[in-house]
Amino acid sequence: MISPYEALANAVVLQAVKDYRAAKRKLKRRPDNESAQRDLKECEIFFKSRHFNIFTNLDGKALLHRLEEEDE
User: Fold this and answer.
1) Which of 2, 8, 67, 71 is deepest in the core (most CB within 10 A)?
2) 45: exposed, middle or buried (C-beta count within 10 Å: 0-12, 13-18, 19+)?
3) pLDDT of amino acid 19
4) What is the mean pLDDT of each run of 10 residues along the chain (72 residues)?
5) SS3 at position 33
6) Cα separation of 28 and 47, whole Å?
7) Does the predicted TM-score (pTM) go above 0.90?
8) Residue 4 burial by CB count (10 A; 0-12/13-18/19+): exposed, middle or buried?
9) pLDDT score recorded for residue 21
10) Are 60 and 52 in contact (CB under 8 A)?
11) What is d(CA 61, CA 2) in angstroms, rounded to the nearest whole number?
12) Residue 71: its pLDDT value, please?
């Protein structure tokens, strides 16, 4: 059974993935959308940060790379 802390950590990572994808969609429609640019940058910083590893054992840089490839 997953602990409440693990569930919360998974939810944080999942929300970052959702936020990243949403920002990418917005930027496809409007590349000059400053809010989406900021959101995307914040997600990228999070995935590359040491804080990311507090939430999960996943490789944040590898996850970011996979997310970047989704549009290709």
Assistant:
1) 67
2) exposed
3) 98
4) 93 98 97 98 97 94 96 70
5) coil
6) 21
7) yes
8) exposed
9) 98
10) yes
11) 25
12) 75
